[in-house]
C-alpha cells in the first residue's frame, strides 16, 4: 500500500538547518539580500588629451640641446628619464644603460620608446604606443629633443635633474607636480 499524500513534517524540520560544511539547497530559507555590490559605480570622466607644447621638428628653438642630442643622445635620455623616474634612478645610470643597449643591440630606441609612453601617461599627452615606437625608431634625436623641450615648458630645468628641481621648487620658482589623477578612489 502506498501513500500519495506526503506526511506532515514537524515544525522543527522547516527551520534553517545547522551548518555542517556540506552544501545543501536551502532556497526556501534564503531571503533576497540588499546588495550594493551590483550597483553601478559612477565612472570617472576621461580627461581630454593635451597636445605637445612643441612639434617633433621644433629643434631650432634650442640648438644647444639639439646638437647635444645628435652627438650624444644618452645624455639627453638620461636627463629625461631621471625626471620621469622622480629621482629614483640617476641620469648617469639610465644614460649608461641606453648606451649599452645601443652598443650591444643597436635598438636603444626601444628603451627610450618605453619612457616616451611613460612621459605621455604622466602628463596626459596626445599619442599612443604605436606612434611612440614609430617616432623613436624613425627619428630618435627629434623625439628626445621634443621630450626635453616639453619638460622645459612644464617648468623643469632638465640639466639640474630631479633633486635639483625639487630644491628649486621649494623656493617657489616652479610647480613640479604632474596633473592630478582624475576620478575618485573607490574600493
UniProtKB/TrEMBL annotation:
Domain of life of the native organism: Eukaryota
Keywords per UniProt: Membrane, Transmembrane, Transmembrane helix
Transmembrane residue ranges: 95-114
Region annotation (Disordered) ranges: 1-46
Pfam family, one: PLAC8
Protein name per its UniProtKB record: Uncharacterized protein
Amino acid at each position: 500500500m502506498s501513500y500519495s499524500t506526503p506526511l506532515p513534517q514537524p515544525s522543527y524540520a522547516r527551520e534553517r538547518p545547522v551548518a555542517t560544511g556540506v552544501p545543501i539547497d536551502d532556497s526556501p530559507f534564503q531571503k533576497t539580500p540588499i546588495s550594493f555590490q551590483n550597483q553601478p559605480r559612477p565612472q570617472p570622466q576621461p580627461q581630454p588629451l593635451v597636445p605637445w607644447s612643441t612639434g617633433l621638428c621644433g629643434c631650432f628653438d634650442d640648438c644647444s640641446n639639439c646638437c647635444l642630442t645628435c652627438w650624444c643622445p644618452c645624455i639627453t635620455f638620461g636627463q629625461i628619464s631621471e625626471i620621469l623616474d622622480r629621482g629614483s634612478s640617476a641620469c648617469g645610470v639610465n644614460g649608461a644603460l641606453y648606451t649599452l643597449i645601443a652598443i650591444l643591440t643597436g635598438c636603444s630606441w626601444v628603451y627610450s620608446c618605453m619612457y616616451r609612453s611613460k612621459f605621455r601617461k604622466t602628463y596626459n599627452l596626445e599619442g599612443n604606443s604605436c606612434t611612440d615606437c614609430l617616432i623613436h625608431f624613425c627619428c630618435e634625436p627629434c623625439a628626445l629633443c621634443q621630450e626635453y623641450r616639453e619638460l622645459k615648458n612644464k617648468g623643469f630645468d632638465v640639466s639640474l635633474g630631479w633633486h635639483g628641481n625639487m630644491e628649486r621648487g621649494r623656493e617657489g620658482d616652479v610647480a613640479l607636480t604632474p596633473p592630478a589623477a582624475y576620478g575618485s578612489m573607490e574600493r
